[in-house]
Design a protein that fits this description.
With 1452 residues, the chain is an alpha+beta fold. The chain contains 39 helices and 57 strands.
Length: 1452
């Protein structure tokens, strides 16, 4: 379906997760999928994928035996080993013998059906897939890292372990280890056998004589060399004859770091080895930084290695290599390598040069964007913290991609090219970073100093808006929108400066006082005159640039806006440039024409509620939009339903639907150079290029794709979020969707555990209790010690320390005194004795002497404390200063108490109100200051309680001042609907509209949250029973629909009850729960017709159970459905009359039931129809048939009976048709004759229907006779024709035919044969016309490259045949119109097919009546070419040959 595809990255840290077969098909594991790519020396292309594993694929290997190159095997962390056919893309077999994680896999090069796998517990499983047999071995209790089957000995397997041990085992002898090869001291990453048997090649290099080597091998089997690579930085060559190492190769220190490696990351090493075929003296290994080293084992000197790609860094991998495999294609030996740098490279082992590189993706593809200046440069933002720029127009390399990673360090979620500056690419990341890359430079990016708090979702270049800091303004500013709902304007010339939040500009320009809705996306009009901003509440605001004056607000969506896109400026029709497309989470794309508000800006903002066009079809939230730059009004949308949809916006018509992805789609771009090409990216880690004209689907799938994707996601392991757990593997699984399977786990800091939190909370509670303990607690402990009259034991030092520790809080409480309410005057009592005595003299002078000191004012200043001993005025002055001191010190309660003591209740309440220190006690005293003070105090206390989230208490205080509606609204505004309803019902009148509003509002909230039962109660309380029934049925299960139907019946909603009960009954019928279905239908008086229909269906299914057309049924049935000796139709009538009271005497009831069932749709069926659905349609036909017979209309009844029989023919189920005919016509033709006798002699239509029934019965009998006499097991006409063309099974001459074939005369109908031939001819001409249109479109597309002359000739040839085809269609339609209507409306078997069967029987059995043979030949000559031209030609030729032989025999 796709043209080009960037696949997901190969899995890391797997010993063998890629392989290549001899045909050049390279397979590699990526996540839980296996991708297949076709490989050549110069190019590569993704050709398919194998999907079926639920978790990471850890191993992949091809079968390398001749003739089985299309068979491969894979192992996964889900514990399964699967065998695949890469041509059919299906799994052939699998086993689950492993109990631990599988770590190694290999297909035996010698035994063609043996697949060997090993796991981390040391278990090795040998699986012979042809006989489906497994055998387990446990040679060592160690973690297996890799294994390899010997290419020379079918029983030898080499196994490498995590601790460096290597063993060679013989699977023909249980658990026998041939050799234990010790030398490595760390993980063994790779094993590879020498492609050449024997060990003679290296004996001269090893300093041994040929005699010694021959002596070693003389007594046993011929050995072979084995290469191993380990994390200990060595490659070792082992002799499996002698069981020891013969060569150790130390990795060279190349001192080269790859361009894609972060210097802060510690060097990793994965040392894999590969021994190419045809090169027994060369071994290829990986190295430290991604280099590939080829070792010459017989070369002398110190440097025995050479680098693949030479010293050029641009060819080598930039990070460690995990897997290698080789193949010889076209005389070139190619090596394929996969690496941590997410690239697959192909190397020529002759030249050691890189042939090509295929980039892969290691995360979700969040964004795609084509450069407006550099044509064909596609930038991709991926979740693997890298940006890729793909030159999609490159001729030499179709996957010419450059990667940027410096300065990113997070998922790249937004990209935007500069409109005019080539190579300037802005990016936004998951951690809120915004930066600008120069893709033509190797310099790090410029990073904005202003970070978003959440993920950056969109970037856009646009004209600067006012208030941009700096004297010189750039022509374009960079705008970023992130998850916190803020849009920043960045100065690209000064990213170090602080960015501007444009909300401030919008507020000032439009004089907005309220809080703006959080923003979710923005898009500038291409001409820079308008800015569209999408919001979290579903609205879209359009602002005029550069002032950002609000022009209009679009209130069309009701969910968060995900994407906005303006139409391009170069549309062919006027006004197209003002179209704005918007997509949200409600799956509908709206297009608005904003030409009026942009060309003629209104004085005040306009509210738009009607869309110019509505594009409905997707089934999940919209994630991306793109207008075609080559068309006017052509839009492509992508969605979470996993498809991309192309729309003709003006016509509101779907153009095509692309379904090539296996996950949710996140972004889309239209090709800037090809009007037929679209690019999409999604969460399946792929970017795909596809053409619009080649798609077979027109509309998005109706929910099926979404359900499949949801089913796939449910198979993924989920982490529980209800309880907090330490960050371990569970946390890693949350990132698994974005992290390549097999990547190293990165540890994080340890946080406090749940136990620590609980312990800390318990200690805090104990401390709090200790502080609140009454002071007399310690005193009460003494009598407890003396209560037995025993003197307490003497104190010991240890006991004293423990007691002190226990009593410390109590001791502190006893020593601590309460704070005085008059601290200033109290403190003055602690002055020196002389000053205290002086105060006595001053007080005496004030009270008893007329000569009062001039500077002495009791209650203030230095004589503050004397206010307590003076008059009331002096006391008030002291209170005032004390109160002021309390306020300054934050002790408002003391200040309030002083005012209360003073009698200033209003002042105390005002102080408490201002400081937010109102209490229940103060509010209770408020009425003493008057009603106004009390009312204001209660209102203030309500605000204070609301701030403290004590909403119920606040509402109760509102009730005290008779603010009932305000109390109800307070509870409602804070989602306390239950309390609000209780309060309203208690205090308001039952008919008050507020109560109904509360119920409906709460019901809407409950419905949104999925609490349908409580929502239904609210609707019932609000006198909305219809909504109550609907909301209960919203859950969709049988119990809910049954309850909803009963509720609707009780409240009098008959139509709703009817539809819900019928819906519930159909669900039960689909599960073959006939008892439950009839119970639901019986509860509704108006569903008698459906009761009869379901009864007929049950009788039909029970009668057919266990026949050839159906399997046995295990569902419980009614007692009246037990098969009886009487005919099926008579049984139906008896059950109806006995169980449902339907008899011929009640004609009115029967007519009502018949009209009720006529409203049901009963269309023709397709060959792919499910058996249950087919039987239901047949049951409906049979129900109409019996109803017509009960009314005496035998003609209509027989027509329905014929329709029921013909349905099995339409569904291509001959076995079912045979069973149905036997069930409906137990006496064969005699049964039809009995029905025919009941027809009115003048009923011509009935006679034609009867002939159709006879024809179908004869059709079944014809096949039964043929199969009974020839022993054939064919079940369709297709199988018959195949036998005819290949000769077929002949019967011995003279064999008895069995029953007479006279009944076949009915089948050889000339009018029906003519009708069927004409219909076939019309269909064939229409097919040719469709093919001609497609060829013409391809010619138009290829004219630019193929030349005008060639295209002109092809077009001319097509145009010459077009009038002839049109004329032929017109002629056939005239022939069709001349035929009688009853022929066209009445089903009939295919006449030509029956002719072929008869001629075949005549050739093999020689006893078919001659008149039938002649008649069949005549029909075949006239009409056979329209049906089966080749079979008809063979049949006629064969018949002519037989006639010639008979004539020659008679002459002799």
């Amino acid at each position: 379906m796709h043209e080009r595809l960037l696949p997901a990255s190969p899995n890391w840290y797997c010993s063998r997760s890629s392989d290549i077969n001899s045909k050049g098909v390279f397979g590699f594991a990526a996540k839980n999928t296996i991708y297949l790519i076709s490989v050549s020396e110069s190019s590569t292309a993704v050709v398919g994928e194998l999907a079926g594993h639920r978790e990471r694929v850890s191993g992949f290997t091809f079968c390398h035996h001749p003739g089985q190159e299309n068979v491969c095997a894979s192992a996964s962390d889900d514990g399964t080993v699967k065998i695949w056919d890469i041509e059919q893309k299906v799994s052939l077999k699998d086993h689950k013998a492993h109990q631990s994680t599988i770590t190694a896999l290999h297909w035996s090069p010698v035994q063609k059906d043996l697949v060997v796998s090993g796991d981390e517990k040391g278990i090795i499983i040998c699986y012979w897939h042809n006989r489906n047999e497994t055998l387990s071995f446990f040679p060592e209790p160690r973690n297996i890292f890799c294994l390899s089957c010997s290419p020379h000995n079918e029983n030898h397997i080499a196994v490498g372990y995590k601790d460096g041990m290597i063993i060679v085992m013989d699977i023909s002898r249980k658990n026998e280890v041939v050799h234990r090869l010790r030398g490595h001291d760390d993980e063994v990453h790779g094993l590879s056998w020498s492609p050449q048997p024997g060990e003679e090649l290296l004996y001269s290099r090893l300093g041994e004589s040929p005699e010694a080597s021959s002596e070693v091998s003389a007594g046993g089997e011929r050995g072979c060399y084995l290469a191993s690579g380990s994390k200990d930085q060595t490659v070792r060559i082992w002799s499996t004859t002698r069981g020891k190492g013969v060569m150790t190769l130390k990795l060279p220190s190349l001192k080269r770091r790859g361009v894609g490696v972060d210097p802060g990351v510690k060097e990793r090493l994965w040392l894999t080895v590969h021994w190419p075929k045809g090169r027994p003296t060369h071994v290829v290994s990986s190295c430290f930084g991604g280099e590939l080293v080829i070792w010459d084992l017989v070369k002398s000197g110190k440097q025995k290695w050479s680098l693949l790609g030479g010293a050029a860094d641009i060819q080598a991998h930039s990070r460690i290599v995990f897997n290698m495999s080789s193949v010889c294609l076209g005389g070139h030996q190619l090596l394929l390598s996969t690496s941590m740098d997410r690239e697959i490279k192909c190397w020529d082992l002759e030249t050691l040069e890189c042939c090509w590189t295929l980039p892969t993706l290691g995360g979700f593809v969040y964004t795609l964007t084509f450069s407006p200046v550099g044509t064909g440069c596609l930038a991709m933002g991926v979740g693997d913290s890298m940006i890729r720029v793909w030159n999609t127009l490159s001729v030499t390399n179709k996957y010419d991609t450059k990667t940027f990673w410096q300065g990113v360090k997070s998922k790249v979620t937004a990209l935007s090219w500069h409109p005019t500056k080539e190579g300037s690419l802005a990016f936004g990341t998951d951690d809120g970073k915004v930066g600008i890359y120069d893709v033509f430079s190797n310099k790090p990016p410029q990073i904005s100093s202003t970070y978003h708090r959440k993920t950056v979702y969109s970037l856009a270049w646009g004209p600067p808006v006012p208030l941009l800091p700096g004297p010189d303004e750039p022509p374009f500013s960079l705008y970023s929108c992130a998850g916190e709902g803020v849009i920043f304007q960045h100065n690209p010339w000064g990213l170090a400066d602080e960015a501007v939040d444009i909300d401030g500009i919008i507020r000032r320009t439009n004089n907005i006082k309220h809080k703006l809705s959080p923003h979710t996306d923005l898009n500038w009009k291409p001409d820079g005159k308008a800015l569209a901003i999408g919001n979290e509440d579903g609205s879209v605001d359009v602002y005029q640039a550069p002032s950002l004056r609000l022009l209009c607000s679009v209130q069309q969506h009701h969910k968060i806006i995900n994407v906005l896109r303006w139409h391009h400026e170069h549309g062919g029709q006027s006004g197209m440039a003002h179209l704005l497309a918007s997509g949200s989470s409600n799956a509908v794309v709206y297009v608005h024409d904003l030409r009026a508000v942009i060309e003629s800006p209104p004085e005040s903002p306009v509210l738009i509620t009607e869309a110019f066009r509505s594009l409905a079809g997707h089934t999940a939230k919209i994630t991306g939009l793109a207008w075609s730059p080559h068309h006017s009004g052509r839009l492509v949308t992508v969605c979470y339903d996993g498809t991309a949809q192309v729309w003709d916006v003006l016509g509101e018509e779907p153009v095509c639907n692309y379904r090539g992805h296996h996950g949710r789609l996140l972004c889309v771009q239209w090709s800037p150079v090809d009007p037929d090409v679209v690019w999409t990216g999604g969460d399946d880690f792929t970017v795909q290029e596809w053409t619009v004209s080649k798609q077979e689907h027109t509309r998005p799938p109706r929910g099926k794709k979404s359900m499949d994707l949801e089913k796939k996601r449910t198979l993924q392991p989920k982490s529980k979020s209800k309880k907090k757990k330490p960050a371990d593997k569970g946390a890693a699984k949350m990132e698994e969707a974005e992290t390549p399977n097999g990547q190293e786990q990165r540890g994080g800091g340890e946080g406090p555990s749940d136990n620590d939190d609980a312990e800390r909370e318990a200690l805090d509670k104990l401390a709090l209790l200790a502080v609140k303990e009454p002071t007399g607690l310690a005193d009460r402990g003494i009598p407890e010690k003396l209560q037995n009259g025993v003197k307490p034991p003497p104190f010991t030092k240890k006991e004293s320390r423990d007691d002190k520790r226990r009593e410390r809080p109590e001791t502190l409480l006893k020593k601590r005194k309460g704070r005085s309410i008059l601290p200033l005057s109290t403190s003055m009592d602690h002055r020196p004795k002389e000053e205290l005595q002086e105060d006595c003299l001053t007080l005496a002078a004030v009270r008893h002497s007329e000569a009062v000191p001039s500077q002495c004012l009791p209650g203030s200043g230095e004589h503050l404390h004397l206010g307590l001993f003076g008059d009331r005025q002096a006391l008030y002055r002291m209170f005032q200063e004390e109160g002021q001191s309390h306020v300054e010190g934050g002790h408002y309660d003391s200040a309030i108490y002083l005012l209360l003591w003073k009698g200033d209740i209003a002042g105390a309440l005002q102080l408490a109100t201002d400081r937010g220190e109102l209490t229940d006690h103060l509010v209770s005293m408020a009425p003493m200051a008057g009603y106004q003070v009390w009312s204001r105090t209660v209102e203030a206390f309500v605000k204070q309680l609301s701030f403290q989230e004590q909403f119920v208490k606040a509402a109760s205080y509102l009730l005290s001042i008779n603010r009932i509606y305000e109390a109800v609204n307070l509870l409602k505004s804070h989602s306390l609907y239950r309390e609000a309803i209780a309060l309203a019902k208690a205090r308001l009148q039952p008919e008050d509209h507020v109560l109904k509003d509360l119920y409906t509002t709460w019901a809407a909230v409950l419905e949104k949250d999925g609490h349908y039962s409580t929502a239904a109660k609210c609707y019932l309380a609000a006198d909305c029973p219809f909504e109550a029934a609907k909301v209960i049925a919203k859950k969709g299960d049988v119990a809910s629909m049954k309850t909803a139907a009963e509720l609707a019946r009780i409240v009098g909603e008959k139509e709703l009850a009817h539809s819900l009960a019928l819906r519930c009954a159909k669900e039960l019928l689909a599960a073959q729960d006939w008892l439950g279905a009839q119970e639901v239908l019986r509860s509704q008086d108006s569903l008698l017709g459906h009761q009869l229909l379901f009864c007929t269906n049950e009788l039909l299914v029970v009668r057919l159970a266990g026949t050839n057309g159906m399997g046995p049924s295990c569902s419980p049935t009614h007692s009246w459905s037990v098969p009886h000796a009487q005919s099926f139709l008579e049984n139906v009538k008896d059950v109806w009359e006995r169980e449902f009271g339907v008899s011929p005497d009640d004609a009115e009831k029967i007519r009502a039931v018949r009209s009720q069932l006529k409203a049901l749709e009963n269309p023709s069926v397709a060959s792919s129809v499910a058996m249950k659905q087919l039987l239901f349609h047949m049951s409906l036909d049979m129900t109409h048939c019996v109803l017509s017979w009960l009314l005496g209309d035998w003609g209509a009844g027989l027509e329905e009976l014929l329709r029921a029989v013909a349905r099995s023919r339409e569904a291509e189920s001959f076995c079912l048709m045979s069973d149905v005919c036997q069930l409906f016509f137990p006496q064969g033709i005699e049964s039809i004759s009995q029905y025919k006798a009941k027809l009115d002699p003048s009923d011509e239509q009935g006679a034609v229907v009867t002939r159709g029934l006879e024809a179908f019965l004869s059709y079944v009998q014809l096949y039964a006779v043929w199969w009974a006499t020839s022993g054939s097991t064919a079940t369709s006409a297709g199988a018959l024709l195949e036998n005819w063309l290949e000769g077929g099974p002949d019967v011995e001459p003279g064999q008895e035919v069995g029953p007479s074939l006279g009944f076949c005369q009915t089948l050889l109908s000339e009018p029906h044969a003519s009708l069927q031939a004409t219909q076939r001819a019309i269909a064939e001409v229409q097919r040719r016309l469709s093919s001609m249109v497609q060829q013409h479109a391809q010619i138009q597309k290829s004219q630019a490259t193929a030349g005008d002359s060639e295209g002109g000739e092809a077009a001319e040839q097509s145009s010459d045949s077009l009038p002839a085809l049109i004329a032929r269609v017109s002629e056939h339609h005239k022939e069709l119109a001349a035929l009688p209507d009853h022929l066209k409306n009445i089903p009939f078997p295919e006449v030509v097919e029956c002719c072929l069967v008869l001629l075949y029987m005549a050739r093999t059995l020689h006893s078919v009546p001659p008149q039938l043979t002649d008649q069949a030949l005549q029909l075949l000559r006239r009409h056979g070419h329209a049906f089966y031209p080749k079979a008809s030609q063979n049949a006629l030729a064969d018949r002519q040959h037989c006639s010639a032989l008979m004539t020659q025999t008679s002459n002799v």
